[in-house]
Amino acid sequence: MEETENLIETLALEPIEMNLFRGVSPNDGFPRIFGGFVIAQALLAAYETVENRVCHSIHAYFIRPGDVRIPVLYEVDRSRDGGTFTTRRVIAIQNGQQIFNLAASFQVAEEGLEHQTTMPEAPDPESVLGELERMLADSPDRLPPALIKQMQRPRPIDLRWPDPQNIFKPVPKPPRKQVWMKAKVPIGPEIKLQQACLAYASDMAFMETALRVHGLTWQTPGLQSASLDHAMWFHRPVDFNNWLLFDQDCPSTSQGRGFIRGEMYTQDGKLAASVAQECLMRIKT
């Protein structure tokens, strides 16, 4: 039996030159690099050029599909080192072209005023089926062997949806969704590793919140979908070895795009991070 993927090892970067790093994506059966992988590695590349400061926000654009067969180069621009805030811009490159860029802001740790929204009610994560268990329960006779094999791959994040969509018999659902998530392999206490893993997971099961409004899934014939941009704000330290609730909603879909927002809460109700994304979603006829 395969061992569960160690996300810290997967995200590790190789220094090439000052401000230049190389990463290699796992070949997980998809032709394109998973967006969360590039977000996380770009954040780690930025962290390599920052000392004694913690990232509080990232803003990124997906420009071209990433190719899983070749490495990604991350070039870091040291935009500014201020008294409190540090800014970095990271460009991800394949075949001499930008596939992704990210801006990250870091801050010296400080105390401040405290306020947050209240964590919404949600079922206990241990009471919710995992992804493959859910699919087998919904459509035991319709899952292709290749899909079952792909889903059985020991992926690094445990995802559990209280209100899943049946991928073969989808129906329109309200523009809201909750997902419990945590790392399967222990992550160390370093805040940069915790944030990188959280950034990786933030692109998982996110776009589906826009698709479900229209009764669509990634198995819908003719569906063309992709992440266009991604933003994330880190509010408080988090331990992603424990369950986090990713509470999401979709305020709008229009002009071939969907907009999704999300908040990540610890089990004891602390707001750890906020996320926003716009995605491409169109049906080709």
Number of helical segments with 4 or more residues? 6
The main sheet comes to: 12 strands, antiparallel
Name the strands of the widest sheet in spatial order: 1-2-4-5-6-3-9-12-11-10-8-7
β-strand amount? 35-45%
Could you give the count of β-strands?
12
Shape: globular
**Rg to the nearest angstrom?**
19 Å
State mean pLDDT (0 to 100 scale).
91
The ordered H/E elements are HEEHEEEEHHEEHHEEEE
- Portion of residues in helices? 10-25%
Structural description of this entry:
- The radius of gyration is 19 Å and the shape is globular.
- Strands 1-2-4-5-6-3-9-12-11-10-8-7 form a 12-stranded antiparallel β-sheet.
- α2 (35-47) runs antiparallel to α5.
- It is built from 6 helices and 12 strands.
- It has 285 residues and is α+β, with helices and mostly antiparallel strands.
- A hairpin with a 2-residue loop joins β1 and β2 (20-23).
